[in-house]
Amino acid sequence: QIQLVQSGPELKKPGESLKISCKASGYTFTDYAMQWVKQAPGKGLQYMGWINTQTGKPTYADDFKERFVFSLETSASTAYLQINNLKNEDTATYFCARGIADWGQGVMVTVSS
Amino acid sequence: DIQMTQSPSSLPASLGDRVTITCRASQDIGNYLRWFQQKPGKSPRLMIYGATNLAAGVPSRFSGSRSGSDYSLTISSLESEDMADYYCLQSKESPLTFGSGTKLEIK
User: Fold this and answer.
1) Measured between alpha carbons, how far is A68 from B30 in angstroms, rounded to an integer?
2) Other C-beta atoms within 10 Å of B65: how many?
3) Nearest CA of chain A to the CA of B17: how many Å?
4) Is B94's Cβ below 8 Å from some Cβ in A?
5) How far is the C-alpha of A19 from the C-alpha of A41, rounded, in Å?
6) Do B43 and A101 touch (CB under 8 A)?
7) Pick among B43, B46, B48, B102 to test the A interface (most A CBs inside 10 A)
8) pLDDT tens string for chain B (107 positions)?
9) Contact with chain A for residue B87, Cβ under 8 A
């Protein structure tokens, strides 16, 4: 069956960087785009953008054009989200989603000094 | 960007009630509308795609409809397991945009 398994929770300080992984199984990785979605504590879902798994080209929503990087390791059927220069407002759960239909379990990121 | 205006933000309801949640699109999105259910601490679950199509495994008490730029999710007879947050999403054009969410809770 289709599975998206994300890496574990992260606790970081402002200014640090992190890289979240999303490992896909149960389908051909390059057949579907991978989307990323942010959910701040107690808030709604916010679309971050997507990466073309065939070409590796990322597309970012306006709020995520700085400091955020989508990447792939196609041989490992894995997508990555890197966040640079972390800020307190990056505290959230980050989801990957195959074709915005099947979702990973989410990664809780806490940014605190 | 396309704006999705979702209402109500909170919906107290009783078991067995028929409930409806609505999203209005700021531009034409055709039938590129999905509904998600999210329970606390869980990932969103796709309930409806293409505005009216039930996703696999979703109970038949859920349905989606469209009237012009208004899209609705209806639960015909509320069950306790339906208590959750619900979000619409337009996938007509990038950036995709979510509605602000509806918290469905027991009255």
Assistant:
1) 31
2) 14
3) 25
4) yes
5) 20
6) no
7) B43
8) 999 999 999 999 999 999 999 999 999 999 999 999 999 999 999 999 999 999 999 999 999 999 999 999 999 999 999 999 999 999 999 999 999 999 999 88
9) yes
